[in-house]
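Tokenised fold entry reproduced for absentees:

. . .
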Amino acid sequence: MLEVINARMLYGDLVAVDRLSFTIRPGDIFGLLGTNGAGKTTTFRMIMGLLEPTDGKVLYNGEKVGYHTVNEIGYMIEERSLLTKITVKELMLYFGQLKDMEPKVILERLDYWLERFNITDYKNKKIKELSKGNQQKIQFISAIINNPKLLVLDEPFSGLDPINTELFVEVIRDFQKRGAMVVFSSHQLDHVESFCEELIVLEKGKAIIEGRIDQVKKDFKKQNIKIIGDVDITVLRSIPGVYQVIENSNEIIVKIENEDVSKRVFDYVKTCEHITKYDVEQASLSEIFIAKVGQAHEKV
């Protein structure tokens, strides 16, 4: 179990992380989100034991992270940290032995992951010869080569196309099934929404959204109604509780303040003709993120 308990991190007078608390249990996938400079990377570094909190505690299975626990942790930073003048094989032997792995085991696992990511031909190529996307795969493999029980991923999907992003997601889910704890950040909120159960959104070091995603969306209350058919946009906009109507090429999206408004919209729509779609959906995580971060900025 990973516990961040009332953690606070100061850089001089700057409060990078302000009284942050959360718990991640085996098998959890946890999202740590926020705008640039919100405190995500500082939080990751505290989790990794690279930074000591000014106040509060970060505990891994009840203990502070140290050399005795580092072998159970995998960390992928947002910036590329690969040694570009050596081969993939040499790089992985280096990283693996830092985790006290035997060379034979490292190479067996490397072969498995290279095949899994469809890059078996690159084992003896220098890192600098690889494309950015394939370098991203190698950096990911370096984070998981030790089969970590805690996997920390800072923007793992950055620069990946949809096919390779899905490959990464499948691997992360595999680690979840093994009981690993996964904590990650991503600006691609659709992926966060699709496979993350809990999250915290930071803004200026403070948690402005936290909890299970389903509860976060329920608490937000605002909803979207998607309609295809012959409706009058002016009438929709005049309905109390409707705060925006968007006309897309293939459908109309009606944004409402809460679920009670959906009945008023439906009462109108059922009087219209040729209605082929009427779906009521909770607001997306992206909408909630934008709304909450905007509110946080307004309070400053």
